[in-house]
Design a protein that fits this description.
The complex is a heterodimer of chains A (555) and B (198).
Chain A: H1 32-35, H2 40-69, H3 79-98, H4 101-114, H5 123-145, H6 161-164, H7 169-196, H8 209-241, H9 254-288, H10 295-308, H11 324-352, H12 361-384, H13 386-392, H14 396-426, H15 432-459, H16 473-500, H17 544-552
Chain B: H1 7-38, H2 40-49, H3 52-77, H4 81-111, H5 119-123, H6 126-161, H7 171-195
Helix pairs in contact in B: 1-6, 1-7, 2-6, 3-4, 3-7, 4-6, 6-7
Classes of the chains: A mainly alpha (555), B mainly alpha (198).
């Protein structure tokens, strides 16, 4: 375990009461201290338990689908159930895991601390967002059991099928609408906090990169989410009133639905990935004991991704029949958005170059992120180029691509963030060996799962099909095998973390040698985060003190 | 936390929220733009069937109410509580008049068998169906916003009467006012798009 001996001197600080013991507002006890809390840290943890629950549920759904596909023909479920299952898997993973995971958990917990303040700007609104989130989740559960059962449309709810299907589309899109509100209000809260609550001595170029990435994300949340809200409202109106806004024989245009949908849903993938990139930008320098390479470039690329990412939505629609000019323009813009992402990858790798690298579970997971995300990004270019996209559109290649980005990227960044901040959030250290075993198995399982899917896609296996031709059997079997390995690895990581909660709260305030403000306060943090007014460093990734201290300790 | 009130921050948060509302309607305006391009002839025809007099009246009513809301904020800043209450009551009355007008307008249309999925629209030209479909969706959503705005103004009114909104602390009233201006602003776009379309 990496514990710097000098941290033992910080023992005095840990005696102050943590936020677990001091409710906010004061005077609340028991369950109320959680359910009515205004404390951003408690809310972060409350989000965490809910999101972990949803993640495990959706992961098991994915595993069941993969099991179905492991051999030809009907294996464990029929086609209708399969259709509902991939819809449910998608809806949960997108709206209840990938979008809220990092901002709602780690953003809530660490954004105010990294900005040197005591809470978010609108604490009560923050609580309200959590209730919206839980409420949206409940709606999703209701839609399973009421009306025509869960929709079989896929998470995209494309018209005209979503208007005519018997499934309970209205309730599900209501759930997504409410979850969108929750995400938008969180973004609004973060932007206001960023501008109004930041420590007075912290200039723009002194803000940690995780917070910068959340800021960029928050803008996308504010600006893009209303578009999906209105789109879902229109789907509901079509179902109840049959206006015909997307029906050609009533004068409508179904393509417009796709435009509106992706106008949000493409920026939404940046809502999912940007915070993950922020996490990696925190972890890499800490375990390289070296200042981040290209701080400004990373900040600018975050904002550039947020802006450029909002202008590429129609690259999901190359085969939909829109004009060649649009295909050309959106293809070009898609290539442009790859540039800032690559800037980040190069910056992380350059940070490690000639650094003093110390291996740890968070760093290992971050390295997995860089590798898997890069594959995801490069396969994205195959899809972004209009010519090659025609060949692989709506095949397993697409599915594999976005899983490389969303699970290999956001998912692994989420695991890395869990392992990086766990000691800070709970004050406990976990065992490293099971964490490594889980991480290795998850990464290997991931490769076994999704590389065959890339190949299957190139060979022409369509997505969302419950059965396939005999020649695709080997690839599908391998993918299923990988899925089991992946799920096992993830569960080992989670169980290891959960078991650590039984340990005494002895984690030092700075177990990794981090330089951002959250490592200057006790673990778990006290009620209003800072006991003494925080000291803002001239540059957030200045490791000279940490390095000097460890040299003093005779290392 | 409560000791410090950063009114600029509160206002910023409200503006971000208003921005998201504009984008919400923006999605509908995108639909309008595309369908206007596709069916411009029928949009003009449909526009002629709407009652311009009631539409103009509603525009005036909303503009006046926006002014009185703004005036009530000034009144509260000058510690003229009675005046502020009166102005707010008048704004609420305007909102009510707007809704009543809307009710009669929709009622007449529905009476003439013009509503989503009605036989007249089903059998008529697709362009007209889209025009009236958008008309009902956009004015309906706008009407919903009028109601929300009125609720916010009522809350502010109650808070003024209870002495919770004062000359030194009026963020709630100001934000309700901002919301009301948004409702007005959106109508300023909705009105020409439907009533004055060529």
């Amino acid at each position: 375990m990496v514990i710097m001996s000098s941290d033992l001197q910080d023992g005095i600080m840990t005696e102050t009461q943590s936020f677990f013991e001091t409710p906010s507002p004061r005077g609340l006890t028991g369950v109320k201290a959680w359910l009515l809390t205004h404390d951003h840290k408690r809310l972060g943890l409350m989000y965490m338990w809910a999101i972990l629950f949803w993640f495990v549920v959706a992961m098991i759904l994915g595993l069941l689908m993969r099991t179905e596909l492991m051999s030809q023909g009907r294996t464990i479920m029929g086609p209708e159930v399969y259709n509902s299952m991939f819809t449910l898997h998608g809806v949960i993973m997108i709206f209840l895991f990938a979008i809220p995971a990092i901002p709602a958990i780690f953003g809530n917990f660490f954004l105010p601390i990294q900005l040197g303040t005591d809470d978010v700007f609108f604490p009560r609104l923050n609580l309200f967002s959590w209730y919206l989130f839980m409420f949206g989740g409940l709606f999703a559960i209701f839609s399973l059991f009421f009306g025509g059962g869960f929709p079989d449309t896929g998470w995209t709810f494309y018209v005209p099928f979503s208007v005519s299907t018997k499934g309970n589309v209205s309730l599900t899109v209501t759930a997504a609408f409410i979850l969108g509100m929750s995400s938008m209000l969180t973004g609004l809260n973060f932007v206001t906090t960023f501008h109004r609550m930041r420590h007075k001595d912290m200039a723009l170029m002194q803000i940690p990169l995780f917070t910068w990435s959340l800021y960029a994300t928050a803008w996308v949340q504010i600006l893009a989410t209303p578009v999906i809200s209105i789109t879902f409202v229109l789907v509901m109106m079509e179902r109840f009133l049959a206006i015909g806004l997307f029906e050609p024989d009533k004068g409508g245009d179904p393509l417009l639905y796709q435009h509106l949908f992706w106008m949000y849903s493409h920026p939404a993938v940046y809502i999912m990935i940007l915070p993950g990139m922020g996490v990696i930008s925190e972890i890499i320098p800490v375990f390289s004991r070296k200042s981040i390479f290209g701080y400004k470039a990373i900040v600018i690329s975050s904002m550039a991704i947020a802006i450029a990412g909002s202008l590429v939505w129609a690259h999901h629609m190359y085969t939909s029949g829109m004009s060649d000019v649009s295909v050309f323009v959106f293809s070009l813009l898609t290539f442009i958005v790859a540039v800032p992402s690559a800037v980040k990858v190069f910056s992380w790798v350059s940070t490690m170059y000639k650094g003093s690298i110390q291996m740890s579970p968070p760093l290992f997971l971050s390295l997995c992120f860089i590798y898997l995300f890069t594959v995801g990004g490069l396969t994205g270019l195959v899809l972004g180029a209009a010519g090659t996209d025609i060949h692989v559109h709506d095949t397993h290649f697409v599915v594999a691509h976005f899983h490389f980005v969303m699970l290999g990227g956001t998912g692994f960044a989420f695991f890395a963030a869990l392992h990086y901040w766990w000691p800070k959030m709970f004050g406990v250290m976990y065992r490293f060996r099971p964490a490594y075993i889980g991480a290795v198995s998850a990464a290997l399982g991931f490769v076994f799962h999704f590389v065959p899917m890339l190949i299957l896609g190139l060979q022409g296996m369509p997505r969302r099909y419950y059965d396939y031709l005999p020649r695709y059997e080997t690839g599908n079997f391998l993918a299923g095998f990988g899925a089991y390995l992946l799920v096992a690895g993830v569960l080992v990581m989670f169980v290891n973390l959960l078991l650590s909660l039984r340990n005494p709260r002895t984690a030092p305030s700075n177990p990794w040698g981090g330089t951002t403000l959250e490592w200057s306060i006790p673990s778990p943090p006290p009620m209003e985060n800072f006991i003494e007014p925080p000291v803002i460093k001239g540059f957030p990734y200045d490791f000279s003190e940490i390095v000097a201290r460890s040299q003093q300790d005779g290392r | 936390m409560t000791s410090r009130i950063d009114t600029t921050g509160v206002r910023m948060g409200m503006w971000f929220f208003l921005y998201s509302e504009i984008i919400l309607f923006g999605g509908l305006f995108v639909l309008y733009a595309v369908y206007f391009h596709n069916h411009s002839h029928y949009f003009a025809e449909g526009g002629k069937e709407l009652n311009r007099i009631i539409g103009s009246l509603n525009t005036v009513v909303l503009l006046v109410s926006s002014f009185t809301v703004a005036a009530s904020i000034t009144a509260i800043q000058r510690e003229k509580k009675g005046q502020a209450v009166g102005l707010l009551l008048f704004s609420l009355l305007c909102g009510f008049v707007f809704l009543v007008n809307k009710y009669f307008e929709w009622g007449t249309k529905i009476h003439h068998d013009i509503y989503p999925n009605s036989a007249t629209l089903q059998d008529g030209a697709p362009g007209l169906n889209i025009f009236f479909g958008l008309y009902y969706v956009i004015t309906g959503l706008h009407g919903l916003h009028v109601i929300i705005g009125m609720i916010l103004l009522t809350i502010s009114l109650v808070l003024i009467l209870r002495g919770r909104i004062t000359a030194s602390r009026f963020a709630m009233l100001e934000n309700s006012g901002l919301y009301w201006h948004l409702v007005d602003l959106i109508w300023i776009f909705v009105f020409p798009l439907f009533y004055l379309v060529l």
